[in-house]
Amino acid sequence: MIENQTVNLPYFDQLFGEIAQGHTEVIKAFGLHIHWGYWQNPALADGSIDDFASAAENLTTRVCDAGGAADGQSILDCDCGFGGTIASLSDRFHHLQLTGVNIDPRQLARAREQVQPRNHNHIEFVEGDACQLNFADNSFNMKYENIPTESLLDILLYRWQQTLQPFNVSQIAGNKVFNDLIAAYSTPGRYYHTLKHILHVLITIDNLQTYVKDLSTVQLAAWFHDIIYDTQAKNNEERSAEYTCKLLSILGLTANNIAHITRLIINTKYHQAAADDFDSQVLLDADLAILATDSIQYQEYVNAIRQEYAWVPQADYIAGRKQILERFLQRQRIYFTPLMLEAAEQSARANLIAEIKILDKG
Q1: What pTM value is reported for the model?
Q2: Starting at the edge strand that comes first in sequence, how are the strands of the sheet with 142-145 ordered?
Q3: Mean pLDDT within 22-27
């Protein structure tokens, strides 16, 4: 038990009581994963315990893939529950350092009892407050937090449905395209250009929405702007725009809306916008907001980009990366909108300069 702290978890009190009484359905549904589930096609959910357990595992897989989990990483799972996410990662990947943290020693005891390392992985369950961790900075490649009612996919689905409201899209068509988006941003090889990036862009657009002319189309452009991402290709934006045109046609959007959205996507290629193109300015500022984050987040971004270009030899990567960073620094301003210019410009430039200094050391 954590010193001077009382843990009051009535939900788990009831859950442990039912597990102790041997309630097989409760054990099957919540004995490993204690979050809800994900169904690629909710219409096919049959309401059975087996189906729910499968959906819970499916949600775990989706979230971990969206976060870029890969062999050899150190991963922290906050609020690890009964160890379901740790077990899933251990089953699917190799040579991981897996750490689960929980404030409740009962949950940790069950996790230690039923989760054993596989595939040359190392697993440790630690009692502690996730808000007051004693781990050194940059100890982990990825950090996951199990939030049962607000998983990454839950948040994104809600935002997707809100974005589509002005367009009167059918639920079937909307779900189909949403699943295509999830699949695209969860493909192997993505470490930064993932669903988390999309969420970050959307949140930044929220903060900049007073500058836009057509908020819904800017939001849709954000959803689709990196749907095609191949680090060995030079036409990702064009291919993303082309694929977006196809998917937006499925949604039944007008030709004018589709043309506006695809133009916004094309503008992310060079991150340039005309003085009166306020919609592009907001999208580009949101896309580049990562440049102005704190040093730890910025380093995580830098590491993720390097992973996406792992196929490039180090010397070539340094030269190419420096060229991109210096090109941004040579601009009169990185950000277009008044808010980002005032709040983020100085931090972004400091981060770029610091990264160049690191790159110069080889």
Answers
A1: 0.62
A2: 122-127, 97-102, 74-78, 142-145
A3: 90
